Amino acid sequence: MRYDIIVLGGGPAGITAATQLSRSGLSVLVLERQRVGYRLAQARRLDNLPLLAPTSGGIVAATLAEQAQRLGFEVRRLEATGARWQAMQREFVVETAQGPLLARRLVLAVGLEPRRLPELEVSERVAYYPTELDALGVRQLAIAGSGEAALDGALLFAERGAAVTVYAKALSPTIVRALRVEAEAHPAIELCEGAPVQAVEATAGGLRVRSQQGLRPHDALLIAVGRALAPRWEQLRLDAPRERLYVCGDAARGRLGQCALALGDGMSAALSIVRDWGSP
Ligand SMILES: Cc1cc2nc3c(=O)[nH]c(=O)nc-3n(C[C@H](O)[C@H](O)[C@H](O)COP(=O)(O)OP(=O)(O)OC[C@H]3O[C@@H](n4cnc5c(N)ncnc54)[C@H](O)[C@@H]3O)c2cc1C
């Protein structure tokens, strides 16, 4: 299949770009490997979007999905496993498990991949996204990480009634102050600075986490130790012409950004594509 534009990623950046592009009459396909707004759905509370009252990431993600459906452009639940620029044909080939797809322009809005710690992945009780733990009914959660995603996850589970221990070398100085104050004050959250996770053992129905605090039992471990753009997209950025490939949102920054930035990037990419559409 050939499209004017393929958008990789159905987060705020990708859905905003697709919305504006389809309004302009171009044929658009969004590929999303999970659900629309999957990453956003992990956020406990979004309170820095001035057009919305503070609300959970899950609600914003659901709104994004509804809007995408209402606006009528095509969204396929399908992973892009790679993409390359074909200079002769002047088009992109996007690889998927259902075969290749073609497009004249590509919007890369895939967000970031969690940095993995394979040595700690001892069972399915070790996760990188809070939603992966939903079915486990976690009562005692360990979190490995020192940034905003770690504290956001700690508050999310503490508000659900779990006891949470955050294991960190040192909490990041860039954490938003309000988030840090809230986590420090929460009676169900224990912040163990100077005690990063050293090892994890699987036990019957749980885990044991080793740190400077000794060996302690937990139901599950959430790893939140940073994010990066997947290497295959770094290569595409080097290979594709700048005026054909538009990189938006977190993918453009290489670190966890902000929803409002992603929305703005998506809109900006769409307007640039429409403006330059007629050029060779
Ligand atoms: C815990 C947490 C708390 C946060 N709190 C806030 C906050 O309070 N305020 C705020 O403004 N922001 C917050 N953020 C950040 C915000 O969620 C991101 O900045 C925003 O979602 C980035 O949007 P994006 O469209 O660039 O990428 P994403 O939202 O990451 O969307 C990328 C999408 O691409 C999909 N994808 C990835 N690879 C592929 C592939 N190969 N094929 C197909 N699809 C693919 C992913 O499944 C994902 O749905 C928070 C994030 C987290 C994790």
Report on the structure:
- The longest helix has 18 residues, at 259-276.
- Helix 2 (57-71) links the parallel strand 2 and strand 3 (74-77).
- The model has no long low-confidence stretch (mean pLDDT 95).
- The chain has helices spanning 12-23, 57-71, 148-159, 177-185, 231-239, 250-253, 259-276, and strands at 2-8, 28-32, 74-77, 80-86, 91-96, 101-108, 113-114, 126-127, 140-144, 163-168, 189-193, 199-203, 206-211, 214-218, 220-223, 227-228, 245-247.
- It folds into 2 domains: 2-113 and 227-276, FAD/NAD(P)-binding domain, CATH 3.50.50.60; 116-223, FAD/NAD(P)-binding domain (3-Layer(bba) Sandwich).
- The protein contains 7 helices and 17 strands.
- The radius of gyration is 20 Å and the shape is elongated.
- Helix 1 packs parallel to helix 2 (57-71).
- By secondary structure, the protein is of the alpha/beta class.
- Strands 1, 2, 3, 4, 5, 6 and 17 form a 7-stranded mixed beta sheet that branches. The protein has a 5-stranded parallel beta sheet with strand order 8-15-9-10-11. Strands 12-13-14 form a 3-stranded antiparallel beta sheet, with no helix packed on it.
- It binds flavin-adenine dinucleotide.
